[in-house]
Amino acid sequence: MSRIGYARVSTIDQDLDTQVAKLKAEGCGIIRSEKVSGASRDGRCELATIIDFLRPGDELVVTRLDRLGRDTRDVLNLIHECEQRGAFVTVIDPHVSTRGEMGHVVLTVLGMVAQMERRFIKERQREGIERAKGAGIYKGGSARIDHQRVFELDRGKMGASEIAKAMGCSRMQIYRILKGSLQEPT
Q1: Which CDD domains match (predicted)?
Q2: 10 Å Cβ neighbour count for 110?
Q3: H-helix or E-strand containing 35?
Q4: Which of 44, 87, 165, 181 lies in disulfide reach of 54, CB 3.0 to 4.6 Å?
Q5: CA dihedral defined by 155, 160, 162, 168, rounded to 10 degrees?
Q6: Domain boundary residue among 98, 117, 136?
Q7: Considering the entire predicted model, what is its pTM?
């Protein structure tokens, strides 16, 4: 029987250290972590690896239920997959496990709360953007690629692939800048 920890944060600038420390303190011999959104299971390779290798009696441990996911259906499907393999799921905060029947009920409710929280966050974000637009202070997200530099390289007869490599982005992003709605400033 192995205790396998799973840590997840949504963005690359967030820190996994606190979750990993808690999982170690809980006795997890294996800890897998990733920086990817919990909105769906897409792109969550580490979680998929854990699920694939669970054996009967193993335990998947997370610090909070929203680390497994923010969609109730996804969370319940994950728990079901673990159970199909004879494994258990344990959440540290609040301490709940699928070892008992009551744990299933609590995890279902917590999953619904996590999904509701995600909807509230998106709603508050949307409202904040609308207020900022109304006040004339919303400028949108900052450009991650220096468009002026892309145009300069293009004028220098560099191809899209070369520009993408020089700028550290995809070729498609370069095409969007050069040919899309973003035109060179005059």
Answers
A1: SR_ResInv (cd03768)
A2: 19
A3: strand 30-35
A4: 87
A5: 110
A6: 117
A7: 0.64
